[in-house]
Protein: Poly-gamma-glutamate system protein
Amino acid sequence: MKKVYWRPKAVSRTGLVLIAFTAVVGLIVVESVKVERLQPHYDEKMAATELAAEAYDVIYDARMELGYDIDETMDLTQSGMLGLAMSDVTSLAGDVTAKRTAINPNFAAVAVQMLHDAGCDKGDVVAIGVSGSFPGINVCVYAAAEVMELKPIIVTSGAASQWGANLPDLLWLDMERILVEQGLFSTRAIAASIGGFEDRGLGLSEEGLKAIDYGIERNGLTKLKAETFEDAVKERMDLYDSQANGKPIKAYINVGAGTVSVGRTLGKKMFSPGLNLDPPDKIRQTDGIMPKFILRGVPVIHFAQIADIAEQNGLPVPPLVPPAPGEAAVFEAVDYSKILAASVLGLLGLMLYGFVRSDIGLRLLKLSKSPKKDTSTEAMV
Structure:
């Protein structure tokens, strides 16, 4: 049997105008009244960021003790984390804006989010490759791993590009050791290479090579000795696998654009900054640590093109004042009020029913008893 229901023959213009007016007002209200929502893993993100900020202070103090001045015209936040334009251990050219942007402890929260998105949890093994080029990001990655209670396997290098950790007696190798000695981090690198071009310091002066060798020695690290690109990739992969002790490596984190880690020119073009979950097209045509891991199905977190990652997460490019922990979209997001939006939608639904599917709206508006149009109800089948 077909169902019979009743509605007016015509919908009043007054009702339509009222519905339209309510819809417009509701839209304005919903757009105007927004709420701040804490992002997932907020407590971990804050803890990691605060730890990174404390590590920045420790490195600042170490720099002051060594007598290195801070150029306030270059180090805009006077962090002490920005290196020199040139030194004996400077390997390659560097973008000063990217280096300034990277000096932000809130990148620790970004690292926490990416690690969770990669599927990492407490006790998981992660492989990490860093150099001296972005010490600010290195600190944040270590802080994220520390707070999340991961088990990192770290391989580092001594050289740094412009504006990185390129003070000959305060290399990243030294910073890492100091932070462990101060009790901030519990894990250090298991080995170090010279770094720079081809990971062998090609182009560095004899004094620069000696300074990095001495840095590796004074920090008690094992020096990687591969003489070719292919051997360097194999040497690192063997280290990661042996140190994992049979446990799965859940993610690989790369900081910077080291050739051995990312791959040669082709590899550097294939990976996107941030989290990479799937192998890029034609990835088998290049070699490197990141290609090796992602072909195994291991997520790769690529901290390169730092300004892009900063913009995606609401971080300044670059910060002009010392960034405070928690000041980024990765901590809180401005969102619509779901209750308000649902209320407006519900009201419009009721009004449509009242004016279109029944004569309740007409009765409420107390229309004239003799309307120009015939608005009496009729049976609808």
Observations:
- The chain has two domains: 5-33+337-380, 42-332.
